[in-house]
Design brief:
1184 residues; 4-stranded antiparallel beta sheet; 32 helices; 29% strand; WD40_rpt; Zn_ribbon_IFT122; cell projection
Length: 1184
């Protein structure tokens, strides 16, 4: 830091109490004696303003620069315009001590010994507020919200814009330490408003707006009279009884003296946006000083250390842009940096820092040593174990423990010193003297080595990476480059003020001067470009440039020197330059030039840089050929030209080296067929044919398929032509080709057929397969396209294809729900089990999907198919009959459960309560331990409980609810079941007599319970009940069996005799037998009391614990009427089943397909609704 006096004025025998700058810095307002002086900064003119009658104590300028104010001991305030006209005066009761303008609202605060007032241009009156002590100083915050008042009693009072006190700061000294000056920091970087307070207890303190103190008090050696911040708040200027102004950091660290005077410094102000400080003294002296902040910094490779805010050191990594701040809290005088060491000289000591790790990007420094001594030196250098101090002609080498190890005294003052590396403890120094001598000094050697002796003073030095060349800038700004070993001057350049060798390339250096950056490679001409600043380092492609106080790393392409090497075909040197940093296009030019120069190694490395795999493959192939012994450089160059697009040059070289085929391949690959024809000529038909084929390939790839197909046909490439025609669906063109082909050409014909199949041209495909005689493929074609008639025709002519036709046909029928036809097809193909498997899968799916009606139907279908298989296959007869019985039961279970499921899951039911009641009982009576999948016992019991309660079967309902309690009930039924269980206990514990009578056995007349754990049989005679397949009421039917020796045909003939007992019977009964349905209908008369032989037989044989079937003889059969008997005429191997109706007045109908029995009225209604049997779904008009 240096201080220069700008100007000085003396106002004789007048104390200057206050100063104020206009915000733009063009005017300085001076409070001198009884007058206000206006000093013009530009020309130095002073203009006095009269208006006060006593000493002027204070002046202040508004932030907008339109007016200023002055306060005097005459108790008045005068407002002046910027044109020096007084526009307003107002007074206080005491002398005015200080004034301050609000920076935002331009409100004026004026303070006297007993009060302070707030005035603004909009107000006619001044708002005044009493205070308890004399006010000595005041100041507004940056946002204009608060006013701080410093008082004689050591108190700082912070008020809002209305004058109300918000914060009170009491200084420790009280009245013995009056607050004489305060200032708010104008810094915009701070998060809080900071107030600097100087008192006559010789303390400087800092406070937040809240009144909280920042840090500790700073002790002063004088009574401070004024405190003033720089425009950005980075420094503080203070003056007082020590008769000088001092510069401090914003934290209160003293940096130095600005100007010494002969009297107390009563006030000091910093010129806005500058480093000029104006101070005024008690003796009338006014002086302006310009502060020059010098740059204190150090550079080593990519690390740059510089001073910031005078007391901090910032280390910047120029490549990664990382920064780290080291706070020293004292004035930083010198900085040196080398490798992992950083030396900082402070006024009374030197701090040595080191990096925490060896990582190149590490930015964490820690203190290694402290040398607590005061040193005076011009230059400071640090090494691994030493520091070097330079003072004029003297160099001193000190260890980190402050031991002076060596000293060198030069013959002339030292102008430049630099560490050029070396092992730790033996580093080398490059020293330039004022007399032109250039020395090399080793830290561990007392004797300097003279490298060169110039005639002029040395200004800048640098040595190349290999230590063979030395670059010097002399005082005439001339760059001189020498060979160190031979002392020969290699070249020189004018207009240089700094120089640096590239640390990564021996032959490159750069120098700056006259706002230009100059890059020189080897002995080539200099490449020049604009650059503001001072070049201090050159690392790879990075130029380190210092501009004013800022260091930056500029990326400089090395294209110009690289091309200089390329012009001389120095490819390896050009590659080294390119590695420092060039653009991708520069890399490509280098790679291409090296390839054409047949420097494959350099070309390969350059192409790797730009990741050009195509050229790398070429270079690798050439290298492989060279390993195999090829050494024809012209052939290699021809390949290079071909890759570069210089096709005609490549063709000439191919021809010259005897490789015409390569030229032909090149032209055809590039679709340059005309050039290829010219190259080949008309003498080679084989080559012409190859050309035509390749031209067709190109036409195909360039989306001209028809032309390509025609070209392929012209050269006999039928397969390729067929593929193109088939892909584009040109069926007519394809059949023309197929018809012209010989039937022996099976491969192209087969391809034609495949394309026809894909195009769904069954007729053309059939014609091609017929031409080929491929019957197997023809059958498969008919099957795949579902042309079954043609397939059946072929199967009849060629029985070996029966399985190939009928099996897919049956599968197709099954997939289309035509199961009976599918069964016939499977039979034809001899695949009976296939039909069963298909139906089993469909049945399983129906159960899983809760389609129980379909499941019942599919199980009935399965049972009938099992019966067919058992009839045709004697080996499987027993197994199939067992399956028939099981599937019949499952069909009935799922048929009845469908109604229960709909009742529980759907909101409405079409069934009467009695029907649901009967269905539930039937299902529970017949369910064994193994419940079929999908059937829910919970749903069944739940439905039974609900219907039992409705119909009055309270005992059965209670039983159902009790059973439900033992099972896992779904949450949707839980509440209903619990409520029902409670409600049913309020009902009688018995069932309705009408319901019990409905369960009477028609053989033994025993009333059976509503639920029977023995199944659907009578508990007395074990006779099975016969149920209606719609309402599931017990039908008045009794099954009877034929005696031994009676055949079904004889039994039917005996029954058909219809021997009448009386004539009345003929009048009562009407039989409807239309070969489709067997129906018993009742006449109008009454039966007589004559005993029936069947009834006698039935009563005679009943009784006992085991079931005794009713067996009838010829006599009994002859006595029966055909109209009273229902016969289930099962196909073989099953026997027919016979049933006798015991109540002739009940009309019963039996389906002739599934043999299920119904009340006739129910059956007729269901048939009308569904147009088929509700159980087996046989259409009503279908022949049996």
């Amino acid at each position: 830091m240096r201080v220069a006096l700008a100007w000085k004025e003396t106002i004789r025998e007048q104390c200057v109490y206050d100063l104020a700058f206009k915000p733009d810095g063009t005017q300085l307002i001076i409070a001198a004696g009884l007058r206000v002086l206006v000093y013009d900064v530009t020309d130095g003119a002073i203009q006095p303003l009269k208006g006060h009658k006593d000493i002027v104590y204070c002046v202040a300028y508004a932030k907008d620069g339109k007016r200023f104010a002055s306060g005097s001991a005459d108790k008045s305030i005068i407002i002046w315009t910027s044109k020096l006209e007084g526009i307003l005066r107002y007074t206080h009761n005491d002398s005015i001590q200080c004034i301050a303008y609000n920076p935002v609202t331009h409100q004026l605060a004026s303070c006297s010994s007993g009060d302070f007032g707030l005035w603004s241009p909009e107000q006619k009156s001044v708002n005044k507020h009493k205070v308890s002590s004399k006010i000595t100083c005041c100041g507004w915050t940056n946002d204009g919200q608060y006013l701080a008042l410093g008082m004689m009693n050591g108190v700082v009072s912070i008020r809002n814009k209305n004058g109300e006190e918000k914060v009170k700061i009491e200084r420790p000294g009280g009245s013995s330490s009056p607050v004489w000056s305060i200032a708010w920091s104008p810094s915009k970087d701070e998060h809080n408003d900071i107030l600097a307070v100087a008192d006559w207890g010789q303390k400087l303190s800092f406070y937040q707006l809240s009144g909280k103190q920042i840090g500790k008090d700073r002790t002063l050696t004088y009574d401070p009279c004024c405190v003033s911040y720089f425009s950005k708040g980075e420094y503080i200027v203070m003056g007082g009884s020590d008769k000088q102004a001092s510069l401090y950091t914003k934290d209160g660290v003293r940096l130095g003296t600005i100007g010494e005077q002969n009297a107390w410094v009563w006030t000091c102000r910093v010129k806005p946006d500058s480093n000029c400080v104006v101070l005024a003294c008690q003796d009338g002296t006014i002086a302006c000083y310009k502060i020059i902040f010098s740059t204190v910094h150090g550079l080593y490779k990519d690390r740059y250390a510089y001073r910031d805010n005078m007391t901090d050191v910032i280390v910047q990594h120029l490549i990664t842009e990382q920064k780290v701040r080291i706070k020293c809290r004292e004035l930083v005088k010198k900085i040196a940096i080398y490798r992992n060491r950083l030396a900082i000289q402070l006024p009374e000591k030197i701090l040595i820092y080191e990096l925490c790790s060896d990582v190149s990007s590490d930015m964490h420094y820690r203190i290694k040593e402290k040398i607590c001594r005061k040193f005076e030196c011009n230059l400071l250098v640090v090494c691994c174990h030493h520091i070097i101090l330079c003072q004029e002609k003297r160099l001193q080498c000190l260890s980190f423990t402050s031991v002076k190890e060596k000293e060198w005294v030069m013959e002339s003052p030292i102008r430049y010193i630099k560490v050029i590396g070396g092992s730790p403890g033996r580093e080398g120094l490059l020293v330039g003297l004022k007399n032109g001598a250039i020395l090399k000094i080793f830290v561990d050697n007392l004797f300097p080595i003279t490298l060169l002796k110039l005639s002029t003073s040395v200004r800048c030095l640098d040595m190349s990476a290999s230590r063979h060349k030395l670059a010097v800038v002399d005082e005439h700004n001339t760059l001189l480059v020498y060979n160190i070993n031979s002392k020969e001057l290699l070249f020189q350049e004018p207009n240089a003020d700094s120089v640096a060798w590239n640390t990564q390339c021996e032959d490159m250096l750069c120098f700056s001067g006259n706002d230009y950056l100059n890059i020189k490679a080897s002995n080539f001409p200099v490449h020049q470009q604009n650059m503001k600043g001072f070049m201090v380092g050159y690392n790879g492609s990075k130029i380190f440039c210092l501009f004013i106080y800022s260091m930056s790393a500029e990326e400089v392409p090395q294209s110009a020197p690289m091309y200089q090497y390329l012009e001389r075909k120095m490819y390896k040197e050009a590659y080294q330059i390119a590695c420092l940093g060039v653009t991708d296009s520069d890399w490509r030019d280098l790679a291409t030039d090296a390839l054409e120069g047949l420097d494959f190694d350099t070309a390969k490395k350059a192409f790797i840089r730009i990741r050009d795999l195509r050229y790398l493959e070429l270079i690798n192939s050439i290298e492989e050929r060279k390993k195999r012994g090829e050494n024809d450089n012209e052939l290699f160059l021809a390949d290079v030209y071909a890759y570069q697009g210089k096709f005609h040059e490549a063709a000439k070289l191919y021809k010259r080296t005897g490789h015409e085929s390569r030229a032909l391949s090149m032209y055809t690959d590039l679709r340059m067929f005309e050039y290829a024809k010219d190259f080949v000529g008309a003498t080679d038909p084989k080559s012409s044919r190859i050309l035509m084929t390749k031209q067709a390939d190109w036409a195909k790839s360039s989306k001209e398929p028809r032309a390509a197909a025609e070209m392929y046909l012209s050269v006999g490439e039928h397969l390729k032509a067929i593929d193109i025609i088939g892909e584009h669906g040109w069926g007519d063109m394809l059949i023309d080709i197929a018809r012209t082909l010989d039937k022996a050409e099976r491969e192209p014909l087969a391809k034609c057929a495949l394309h026809f199949k894909r195009l769904k041209r069954h007729d053309y495909a059939s014609e091609v397969y017929s031409k080929m005689g491929d019957l197997q493929a023809l059958v498969q074609l008919h099957v795949e396209t579902w042309h079954w008639e043609e397939a059946f025709s072929l199967a009849e002519k060629h029985p070996q294809f029966r399985d190939d036709v009928f099996v897919p046909y049956a599968q197709w029928l099954a997939e289309n729900d035509r199961f009976e036809e599918a069964q016939k097809a499977f039979h034809k193909a001899g695949r009976q089990n296939e039909a069963v498997k298909v139906l089993e899968q469909l049945t399983h799916n129906a159960v899983v999907e809760n389609r129980f009606n379909d499941a019942g139907y599919y199980y009935w279908m399965l049972s009938m198919q099992c019966l067919d298989i058992g009839r045709e296959s004697e080996d499987q007869k027993d197994e199939m009959l067992k399956k028939f019985e099981r599937f019949q039961h499952l069909a009935e279970f799922y048929h009845v459960y469908c109604s229960i499921q709909r009742y529980t899951d759907e909101p409405f039911s079409s069934h009467m309560p009695e029907t649901l009641f009967n269905i539930c009982r039937f299902l529970l009576n017949n369910l064994t331990k193994d419940i079929p999948p999908g059937i829910s016992k919970v749903n069944t019991l739940y439905a039974l409980a609900k219907q039992s309660r409705r119909l009055g079967a309270y005992k059965l309902a209670r039983y159902s609810y009790e059973k439900l309690q033992e099972l896992h009930v779904p949450s949707r039924f839980q509440e209903s079941v619990e409520l029902g269980s409670l409600n049913i206990r309020s009902k009688p514990f018995h069932d309705s007599e009408d319901l019990i009578e409905g369960m009477m056995c028609y053989r033994c007349s025993t009333n059976n319970p509503l639920l029977n754990n023995q199944g659907s049989v009578c508990i007395n005679c074990r006779q099975p009940f016969i149920y209606s397949a719609s309402s599931y009421e017990v039908l008045p039917l009794v099954q009877f069996y034929l005696e031994e020796g009676l055949s079904d045909e004889e039994a039917v003939s005996l029954i058909d005799l219809e021997v009448p007992h009386t004539d009345q019977r003929d009048a009562r009964w009407q039989e409807m037998d239309n070969s489709k349905l067997q129906t018993l209908r009742m006449g109008d008369g009454l039966d007589d009391a004559e005993e029936d032989p069947f009834t006698a037989k039935m009563s005679f044989e009943q009784g006992g614990s085991t079931f005794v079937p009713v067996q009838v003889s010829r006599l009994v059969l002859r006595s029966m009427s055909r109209r009273d008997v229902l016969i289930k005429r099962w196909p073989r191997p099953l026997k027919w089943e016979y049933f006798r109706s015991l109540l002739p007045d009940v009309s019963i109908t039996m389906c002739p397909t599934c043999f299920k029995m119904f009340h006739s009225e129910d059956y007729e209604l269901l048939v009308l609704q569904h147009n088929c049997c509700p159980y087996c779904r046989r259409p009503i008009d279908e022949q049996n």
